[in-house]
Write a structure and sequence with these properties.
Blueprint (H helix, E strand, L loop, with lengths): L3 E4 L4 E4 L8 E5 L10 H20 L3 E5 L6 H10 L3 H18 L15 H13 L3 E4 L2 E4 L15 H5 L16 E6 L15 E3 L1 H13 L3 E7 L3 H16 L5 E7 L2 E3 L2 E2 L10 H5 L4 H9 L7 E3 L1 H18 L14 H8 L4 H18 L5 H12 L18 H19 L3 H13 L2 E6 L2 E6 L2
Parallel strand pairs: 3-4, 3-9, 9-10, 11-13
Antiparallel strand pairs: 1-2, 5-6, 6-7, 7-8, 11-12, 14-15
Helix pairs in contact: 2-3, 4-6, 6-7, 9-10, 11-12, 12-13, 14-15
Length: 457
């Protein structure tokens, strides 16, 4: 079975055929770095991490570029509010983003360019558009001329008139057409952040950054461009227009892939609604594997409703998987050993809900077969690690990261006392220790190879 993906450009699920089978190229829109990563950032990162893992399993070389947007009014405002330098803020936020994504099992990408490091590439790109007649300068602003690109609206499936309705368009007497979007603008008096250019001291618009960096690292045309559904218009529509206008190609990307919206507790996530969730905050209470698996419970292209109840259900599922595997040694396993049916589910447009369901079915088989050799358990864990990106330490205690070293030491000493009591046939004392730990929220599970413990959820 070959990889199939839902292509936003065609609206159809298509068989993936790379431009070059020896080197597959993918660009994913990354974060704007002014604050901690929220669940929306996390969903997109986890979704395209799954795709990255699938591609790496099929093709000998995969190049994944995920940009860092470090040119933005929100960044400058946050730096002023905190009283720190812009580079200090962005460096700190990038570091925190990497930490949070690593906790969710997101692999490092191959190239992670920052917009501020590619100003010359951006200026060159804009200059090329002006020379071709697709952009114009107006009072130190440079705008892309939408009317100069006949296929504008192709990605979103709407014509210019339809796009005008409900679109967030910044009115300006400097534009020739209300739909024209900015490529370069003078720096704000409030922040004084910018670079010298042929059009004056200023900074790039949002859309041009990704086009310039994608062109630099992946060429005029590449295989996959990914991002959230909210980026189709205007961001990706504008990206495609300006890149195709510069290169004279019909499309900059063969497959546009978008993940669905994420709501929290049935509403759009926002600080005013009190349902804003950052990855960092959730990691205080939940293991990264729990959060990651929860984000994979819904098909990537569908809208997702996140709640603490759904997170708890995912934790329960993972705890069940941990219990099935028990304390068996599952570290030594060949890297190519995965359940084929799980991989096939992922090949069908990244169907993670089906993949998780199939894994649960395999877990039931392990229980019924008793799997004394441990081979199925090894493949089970390997499938979770390689395909779903779960960290899966077989010695991990779910929720253990919430306890101090002293608490863990106390629990394990009590379990040692209980084991000694059992060995001396003092079952009354053993039961007393078990019951006391249960009151403290600790469950002891006895297996053939010894006692394990976990936190009561």
């Amino acid at each position: 079975m070959k990889l199939r993906l839902r292509n936003t450009l065609s609206g159809e699920k298509e068989e993936f055929t790379p431009i070059d089978e020896k080197s597959v190229r993918m660009y994913v829109c990354g974060p704007t770095v002014y604050s901690r990563a929220h669940l929306g950032n996390a969903r997109s990162a986890v979704v395209f991490d799954i795709l990255y893992r699938i591609l790496k399993r099929i093709y000998p070389n995969v190049i994944c570029v995920r940009n860092i947007t470090d040119v933005d009014d929100k960044i400058y405002k946050a730096a002023v509010e905190r009283g720190i330098g812009i580079s200090e803020l962005t460096d700190e936020t990038v570091r925190m983003y990497h930490e949070d994504m690593s906790s969710l099992g997101v692999l490092p990408v191959d190239i992670e360019p920052r917009a501020t490091e590619h100003i010359e590439d951006i200026i060159s790109f804009i200059d090329g558009l002006i020379k071709k007649g697709n952009a114009y300068c107006s009072n130190n602003h440079v705008y892309f001329s939408v009317s100069s690109f006949e296929k504008y609206g192709r990605l979103s499936g709407k014509n210019a008139d339809e796009l005008m309705v409900g679109a967030r368009i910044e009115p300006s007497s400097l534009k020739k057409n209300p739909m024209d979007f900015v490529l370069w603008k003078p720096s704000d008096d409030d922040f004084k952040v910018g670079w010298d250019s042929p059009w004056g001291f200023g900074r790039p618009g949002w859309h041009i950054e990704c086009s310039a960096m994608a062109l630099k690292y992946l060429g005029k045309q590449f295989d996959i461009h990914g991002g959230g559904l909210d980026l189709i218009f205007p961001h990706h529509e504008n990206e495609m227009a300006q890149t195709c206008a510069l290169t004279d190609l019909d499309s900059m990307v063969n497959y546009w892939i978008h993940n669905g919206y994420l709501n929290v507790d049935g509403m759009k996530m926002s600080k005013s609604a009190g349902n804003f969730r950052t990855v960092h905050d959730l990691l205080r209470e939940y293991d990264g594997d729990v959060i990651r698996l929860s984000l994979l419970m819904t098909h990537y292209s569908s809208p997702m409703n996140f709640s603490l109840d759904s997170l708890q259900m995912t934790r329960n599922l993972l705890n069940r998987w941990y219990k099935i595997i028990g304390s068996r040694d599952v570290l030594k396993v060949a890297v190519d050993m995965v359940f084929n049916e799980v991989f096939e589910a992922l090949l069908d447009d990244m169907n993670t809900p089906l993949a998780i369901s199939l894994l649960s079915a395999r877990g039931n088989e392990i229980v019924k077969s008793r799997d004394d050799s441990g081979e199925m358990a090894k493949i089970f864990v390997n499938t979770c690690r390689i395909l779903l990106g779960l960290s899966w330490n077989h010695e991990k205690v779910p929720g253990k990261d919430r306890l101090s070293d002293e608490q863990i030491e106390y629990i394990e000493s009590r379990i040692s006392e209980r084991n000694a009591a059992k060995n001396s046939k003092n079952f009354e004392k053993a039961d007393e220790i078990r019951d006391q730990l249960l009151k403290d929220g600790i469950i002891i599970e006895d297996t053939k190879t010894g006692s394990t413990w976990r936190i009561l959820n």
